Give the backbone structure.
Amino acid sequence: LTESALVESEVTLPVLHALRDLGVRLHLDDFGTGYSSLAHLQDLPLHTVKIDRHFISRLGTEPAADAVTGAVVAVADRLGLSVIAEGVETDEQLDRVTALGVHLIQGYRFAPPAPLDELRHEWGTPAVVERRATPPISR
């Protein structure tokens, strides 16, 4: 889910909690752009926050990008949320997000987007594996 979709939709907090209770994992996409709010991280029944590529592409070259990324990771960790870095394309970016404590990484550094059938052919049945430093807090 993107923050803008949540803000602009009719989806209510009870619906999101019901989805989480059913086992649906809720991920907040493109965090750091648009309607970004720390209240969303605190109040929504989330599992994961995805940091927008806008920040990842500037890591190591713009100190503010490192500061924002590090702050999002720190807040997410304290809330028991996983963090995905979106748009990792270089070894340098991979080193930075790893050093900042990001849990999951996606981007062209590993592979370009591909159709599901191609992924199944090359990798078998897709699975998601998450590693968490601390267990999530219950909401």
In short: Helices lie at 3-8, 13-21, 38-43, 53-56, 63-78, 91-99, 116-123. The first strand starts at residue 27 and ends at 31.
